[in-house]
Amino acid sequence: MRSICIAGLLVALTACGEGEPPENLTNEAAQNVVVPETGPVIGGVDLSQPVRAWGTEPYWTLDLLPGTIYFSDRSALSEEPDQFYYVAPDATAATAVYRTQDIAGASVVITLTAARCQTGGNADLVPLAVEIRRGDQVLRGCADQAPGEIDLGDNVSEENASTADLPVE
Q: Which of 10, 49, 72, 96 has the lowest tally of Cβ within 10 angstroms?
């Protein structure tokens, strides 16, 4: 009886290691990245799901996707976003800090903070404030769970069915 139980346990443990690799590891910066199924949640935003950040002066967007990070300077003439290496954030209940670098090796620090942030000139509030430090440049803006689909041209297309449903404070 004991040997039957041990044999059954070995068969069960052997099956645990098999599975398909994630499909979202298709770009050069995302190679060999392990993407968690669930991640930290700050301000009601699940960081294991796509997050979009944006700011003005200059107008820019930052897409934190499972396995990669893209930055687009919308005021520049380039249509291609800059790619940052994906790293898991150092997260607390109120902040998440991504210490990464771009493809050229320049240091990039992205800080998300659970703080109501007013978007542009309207009264809409979103749950996260963001600060991006890239070399000497510091950009500040707002962030939220990415709505629907993020399309970055030929680089990435991520679909996210969930959106944050946050009460207004």
A: 10
